[in-house]
Amino acid sequence: MIERKVGVPATRNEVKGFSPAHLTRALSAAKDVQLRMELEKMPVPLTAEMVDEFMGAVLEAAATGELTRIRNVPPVDHAQP
User: Fold this and answer.
1) DSSP assignment, residue 51?
2) What sections of the chain are H helices per DSSP?
3) Which pTM does this prediction carry?
4) N or C: which end of the chain has fewer CB within 10 A?
5) Strand (E) or helix (H) holding 39
């Protein structure tokens, strides 16, 4: 990996001071009721109920480098009422 050759972290877990508590805080903040509209306006809209499953998987993948953890959000059928 190029990151290793130039001496920079390749994953979040390699960043000095990074801990699982950072992931927990990020997921909690994303589920804050006051940020609901921000989640819904993202390029791939999420609800607070989806945060752990989908955003959590992305943050975990960034921490570990295991990109297979990332899950796609199912498409929304806008034709249904």
Assistant:
1) I
2) 2-6, 20-30, 36-40, 56-64
3) 0.78
4) C
5) helix 36-40
